[in-house]
TrEMBL record:
Record keywords, A-Z: Guanine-nucleotide releasing factor, Signal
Region (Disordered): 36-74, 512-539
Skewed-composition ranges (Low complexity): 37-50, 62-74
Full protein name: Ras-GEF domain-containing protein
Ranges of residues in domain N-terminal Ras-GEF: 101-228
GO biological process, one term: Ras protein signal transduction
Organism: Astatotilapia calliptera (Eastern happy)
GO molecular function per UniProt: guanyl-nucleotide exchange factor activity
Organism lineage string: Eukaryota, Metazoa, Chordata, Craniata, Vertebrata
Length: 539
């Protein structure tokens, strides 16, 4: 839960900072909305479900299925029932029930859901079902177990007692099983970082006919390529982090930090800087697996008996992305607090306001929010003499857009605008939507927490799983965008590796820029000086 703690710290910081800005006064005028670059922002219409929990009529009932007229619970799905009649072996109604409401699956036993995933000669599960169940089934059983059971059922249901006949029958269904495994490997490749998954895949390759075997081998090769790209990415991120951590000692006193180049010496064009930030965001986003959203929350669930699987960290790309947000906030604060001259600090603030504005225009809400967060950190916010030299009109409009009040309603409207622009885009630049990521995680977290995964009768609340899948699949569309801007290696390198101040160092640098204003600040400076500079002298 370390990740969650960090996300909530971020959100709390944002709440605190923005509300303090609001308290200062600031009359936001209606021009705020006319600044919106998205062609047709729809009026904000809160969704009916916004606070309610998916899971109709189940929340207060206890087990009994006394339900409305159009809700039906079937013993098993039709396909399985047909299958049971046809082969007369093994497959019976013992898979439990599936409940539908207006033809959409609302709840079912885990057994029935697993069975629903298993293809037969004349049945293949619906694509949205495959995605939804593969995504969320990990709340109930680890992927390895699901895969084993699906493959086993697929083979078993063909059994007649005659070995040769079984083989022929299995070959008839095999193309569909291969299709299912292909969807699995392409949408959730990281599940296959588990050797047991790979072994199961190999086993199936041995079982299928020659034509399917080729398909399986190609699928496996694509999978291995994806996984090795992931491995390289993880190593690269780890290496960059080492570089970023390497030289912080030189920053501890302002004199020494004067030798560090500042952002303006690397890039003084806010458009270019916003574009490079967008590169970093999209790079990191592209490596997050859809299952990481669910896995973050699955760990504490009733999976005590699956410790082996969940002990390994399965959300590292998501964590790396959240760390990037924090890094960018601290980088902005460091750049502002470091210069000795007030004029120089003011110029940097103005520069970052322009960068933030451009991030907003691009649809890069995550960098935008990180920059706003950096500007509102207390070491920056207290630099009153510096802020007095800055024209903050543009910044106030941006803050208003990202205002947390009413559940971030302004931001959600802007996000919807960006999403619509993306859907009708003619250029890849218009396709870009980068959500404020911590909020996305928070929404998914509350959806998961606020809703029981199981109903009192032991069935799985599938309406909740549909809703989780909806939110995650929206993210998958955003993740696909190819960043259209030119890469500027030097700037990228600077953004991801240049040393940044810690919180204490920021405070000290801030006091060195504009001296303490009261006794509390004086005490704080004294203790920071002795602890930080003392440590520096020792190293
Ligand atoms: C905030 O809005 C989101 C998206 O509409 C919704 O999922 C969430 O439940 C809302 N949270 C609260 C506390 O109302």
């Amino acid at each position: 839960m370390e990740l969650l703690k960090r996300i909530f710290t971020t959100l709390v910081t944002i709440f605190a900072s923005v509300s303090s800005v609001n308290a200062k006064e600031h009359h936001y005028t209606s021009c705020a909305l006319s600044e919106n670059p998205y062609s047709s922002p729809q009026p904000y219409s809160p969704r009916q479900h916004s606070t309610s929990c998916p899971g109709r009529a189940h929340r207060h009932t206890s087990g009994s299925s006394g339900s409305s007229s159009d809700q039906s619970c079937r013993n098993n799905n039709n396909v399985a029932a047909a299958k049971a009649r046809f082969y007369g072996h093994g497959v019976t109604t013992s898979y439990g029930e599936m409940c539908y409401h207006d033809n959409s699956l609302v709840s079912a036993s885990l057994e029935a859901l697993i069975q629903h995933l298993v293809p037969t000669v004349d049945y293949y599960p619906d694509r949205s079902y495959v995605f939804t169940f593969l995504l969320s089934s990990r709340l109930f059983l680890p992927p390895y177990e699901l895969m084993t059971r699906v493959c086993h059922l697929c083979v078993e249901q063909q059994r007649s007692g005659d070995a040769l006949l079984d083989k022929i029958r299995f070959r008839e269904v095999a193309p569909k099983l291969v299709q299912l495994l292909t969807e699995w490997t392409e949408t959730f490749p990281y599940d296959f970082r588990d050797e047991r998954m790979m072994r199961c895949l190999k086993d199936m390759t041995l079982h299928v006919a020659r034509g399917d075997e080729v398909t399986m081998q190609q699928m496996t090769q694509r999978l291995i390529k994806r996984l090795s790209a992931l491995g390289q990415y993880e190593e690269a991120v780890a290496a960059l982090n080492v570089v970023a951590m390497e030289r912080p000692a030189s920053l501890k006193s302002k004199q020494a930090s004067a030798q560090r180049s500042d952002v303006l010496s690397v890039c003084d064009d806010p458009f270019v800087l916003a574009q490079q930030l967008t590169h970093i965001e999209l790079d990191r986003l592209s490596f997050i697996g859809p299952e990481e959203f669910i896995q973050t929350f699955a760990m504490k669930d009733p999976l005590e008996n699956h410790k082996g699987f969940f002990r390994k960290r399965k959300t590292s790309n998501l964590e790396a992305y959240v760390s990037w947000f924090n890094r960018l906030s601290y980088l902005v604060a460091t750049e502002i607090c470091m210069p000795m001259k007030k004029k120089h600090r003011a110029r940097i603030i103005e520069f970052f306001i322009d960068v933030a504005q451009e991030c907003f225009n691009i649809g890069n809400f995550n960098s935008l929010m990180a920059i706003i967060t950096g500007m509102n950190m207390s070491p920056v916010a207290r630099l009153k003499k510096t802020w007095n030299k800055v024209n903050t009109d543009k910044f106030e409009i941006l803050e208003h857009q990202m205002d947390p009040s009413s559940n971030f309603s302004n931001y959600r409207t802007a996000l919807r605008g960006a999403t619509q622009r993306s859907e009708t885009a003619h250029s890849s630049q218009e396709k870009i939507v980068i959500p404020f990521f911590s909020l996305l995680i928070k929404d998914i977290y509350f959806l998961n927490e606020g809703c029981a995964s199981r109903l009192p009768n032991g069935h799985i609340n599938f309406e909740k799983l549909w809703e989780l899948a909806k939110q995650v699949s929206e993210f998958l569309v955003w993740r696909q965008v190819v960043c259209p801007f030119d890469r500027e290696r030097r700037i990228l390198q600077y953004l991801v590796t240049t040393p940044i101040f810690t919180e204490d160092e920021l405070h000290l640098a801030s006091y060195e820029s504009e001296g303490p204003e009261n006794n509390m600040e004086k005490d704080s400076r004294r203790s920071l000086r002795s602890s930080l500079l003392h440590r520096e002298n020792r190293t």
